[in-house]
Task: structure prediction
Amino acid sequence: AKDHEVVAIMKTEMMSLWDGLMTGNSRVVILGATNRPNDIDSAFQRRLSKRIVINLPNQIQRKEILKKLLQGASLHDNVDIDEIAKETNLFSGSDLKEFVLATLMIPVQERIRNN
Result:
């Protein structure tokens, strides 16, 4: 309950400041991004004049993202980037980055455990 109260106070303060930016000759651009557009507060939505939807990457785009993220990494011969791209449907670029970082840490973690 206390957390909700704090969030409400912060939201009210932010809205007040935001409204102040929209008056006068100020040239301030406010940009927001989310993976959960349905959870954006209606007061925020009213203040955002334009909405640009950037879809999740398709399989071909995921493959290119994976190739870029894995550039310079030593991969086992049986690593199939096409298959990984296929199996990572609904992954964002950020999700792919986290996936690659976690995967690249597995040999390090195994070595630490074995020593």
